[in-house]
Amino acid sequence: MSEMDYERELVSGFDVHDEEDFKALVRSALDDLPLEFHRALEHVAVVVSDGGRRRRAYGLYQGDTVAQDYFHDRIVIFRDTLTRDFGHDPELLRAQVTKTVRHELAHHLGWDEKGVRKLGL
Q1: Which long-range contacts (CB under 8 A, 24 or more apart) does 20-23 make?
Q2: How far is CA 60 from the centre of its chain?
Q3: Spatial separation of the C-alpha atoms in residues 21 and 101, rounded to whole Å
Q4: Distance between CA 76 and CA 44 in Å, rounded?
Q5: pTM of the model as a whole
Q6: Cα separations (Å) of 40 from 30, 69, 80, 81?
Q7: Residue 23 to residues 3, 10, 30, 36, Cα–Cα distance (Å)
Q8: Tens of pLDDT along 15-49?
Q9: Euclidean distance between CA atoms 19 and 35, whole angstroms
Q10: Which CATH number does the domain 3-63+70-114 belong to among 1.20.1440.230, 3.50.50.60, 2.60.40.1930, 3.30.2010.20?
């Protein structure tokens, strides 16, 4: 099975209510990052949470950026808000999960919210 066929299968068989399926979307978004970004995430926990409604967010970066490295860094991807807003369309959900992962990664790399938005994230 080619990589593209695998990605189509992943999206077409996606169950918005299945936590493991959602985690697979997040893993796929991480796997698609260029190698240098994988290195930047070596010591960053990436977790899935259902706390997005409370925070009114799709994702969250917690830490002090790769430049300082005083605290443990963590990227949280909020399944509840992403599936609520994009779960009706698996392709759209996949694209938004990828965008959210990249948005939070940009914060880890030191971009503030204004800078991240200028990147189109």
Answers
A1: 22/48, 22/79, 22/82, 22/83, 22/97, 23/48
A2: 9
A3: 16
A4: 10
A5: 0.83
A6: 12, 11, 27, 26
A7: 18, 11, 11, 22
A8: 877 899 999 999 999 999 999 899 889 889 999 99
A9: 26
A10: 3.30.2010.20
